[in-house]
Give the backbone structure.
Amino acid sequence: MSSDGTQGPVLVRGIKADNPAKPPVRMEVRDMIKDHPDQWNLYLLGLERFQNSVKEDSPLSFFEIAGKYNFF
């Protein structure tokens, strides 16, 4: 297993919760846009960076990861 995908598959996991018995609730996107515009902007900037950070055919690209999870 490698971190760049060159030596086999790459595991993609979410962050660990402080208390696994009570994980944080995801904010509703419409509420974030309306009530927390700075967080929404940060989300969009992070998504853009993720989409443009590596070549599309890299195992760590947005397109490879999103395709595995039927994101689009």
Notes: The chain has a mean pLDDT of 82. Helices lie at 29-35, 37-52, 62-68. Residues 29-68 form one domain. The radius of gyration is 15 Å.
